[in-house]
Amino acid sequence: MRVQHLPSFKQKALKWAASAEVCCILDSNGYTDRYSKYDLLIAVGANEELNAKSAFKFEELKTFYDRHKNWMFGLLSYELKNEVEELESANPDHLGFPELFFFVPKYLITIKGDDVEVLLGGTEVIDIISDCSPVYSTNKSKIDIKGRISRAAYIETVKALQQHIARGDIYEVNFCQEFFAEHAVINPIEIYNRLSQVSPTPFSGFFKIKGQYILSASPERYLCKRGNNLISQPIKGTAKRDADPTVDLEIKAALRSNTKEQAENVMIVDLVRNDLTKAAIKGSVKVDELFGVYGFPQVYQMISTISCELNPAIHFIDAIKHTFPMGSMTGAPKVKAMELIEEYEISKRGAYSGAFGYIGPEAEFDFNVIIRSILYDATKQYLSFQVGGAITYAADANAEYQECMLKASAIIQTLTSS
Questions:
Q1: Which residue, among 174, 36, 214, 161, has the nearest Cα to 111 in the 3D structure?
Q2: Distances in whole angstroms, Cα of residue 58 to Cα of each of 223, 274, 291
Q3: Are 293 and 300 in contact (CB under 8 A)?
Q4: Which of 198 and 218 is assigned the larger pLDDT?
Q5: What is the C-alpha R_g of the chain?
Q6: Residue 225 and residue 231: Cα distance in Å, rounded?
Q7: Distances from the Cα of 210 to the Cαs of 25, 94, 207, 213, 298, in angstroms?
Q8: Mean pLDDT on 3-15
Q9: Fewer Cβ atoms within 10 Å of its own Cβ: the N or the C terminal residue of the chain?
Q10: Residues linked to residue 367 through DSSP beta bridges, in sequence order
Q11: Each residue of 306-322: pLDDT tens digit?
Q12: Which sequence positions are flagged as catalytic?
């Protein structure tokens, strides 16, 4: 079916979805690629839920999927690394998001072009959404954003990590810092709308679990499955855009040929290739695109695409486990990089640098990387977002700090605008 004035329908659908205890909205914001199947997915309410608590959370997810074989939407926290490898997480966690949470929605609405389809639930939901009042600004946001570490401490830490690189412990590590606000009172719908306006991205989303929210403007796909193919698209390489079209094109060309950014990117490409071999038919892993440069409102990003054919003897949930967490947010070698992340970062990542997305009834799935995202607990009135970058031996600590500030700019702008 078709609805009149799709942007208005999307706004009303968000308001309706957010009134439920659990919802997930995945929005491509008009970006298309060969792997995308939908422009917008709206999953609302829970017929079934999985909040995995055991030491074998991926096995719980496998059982949950095999039992229902239905649409399900969910969150994979970065801390699942401790199940994949012999690692631990001891840093403070001020949010407490579930480590693995999935739900089978009561309602599922898909939008592709101008076509709206209700896949789960009755079609009367379209009339319910259409009758919703528009979302108005409430001006309730009260935010005092603070950095968890100082610029000087950040630079000192980068230099310490570079000593590990000099000793040969690692080649590259993704080091992140947290920005936070206590006693934060926000309207999550309004903040998500602002974030989408400032930074519309292909893997953005609104995820609500009771009083916890992920408001995401992610530009990055972690992993998707189409047919029997797995596809990963890590981002490594960032350049700030310019309002002058001539200068902007020069910036794009400079990023494409930047040997430092290429070196960072190819390290992660090799890591992802290695991860995919654990679930792939032998010899099927290939790099479909290396050093592709794509434009977003604030930045250009260098994105590579790696794919493989899934070994039919391996459950697709195990393919997710074998590649988790995503290499672009860890470093190489992966396990040692994660050990150093735990040692040098001072906040638990939790949902940040994890993933959320969907699994379909035909065992296809698509998950983003939770970056450029606001994490909010309405009960605790605690708001957090983290930013980071790849640290190599050749990295300049001051430049890396500036890149972090660039990545944080859209979120800061969103939270501090009236």
A1: 36
A2: 16, 20, 32
A3: yes
A4: 218
A5: 20
A6: 6
A7: 15, 16, 10, 8, 32
A8: 86
A9: C
A10: 223, 357
A11: 999 999 999 999 999 99
A12: 220, 236
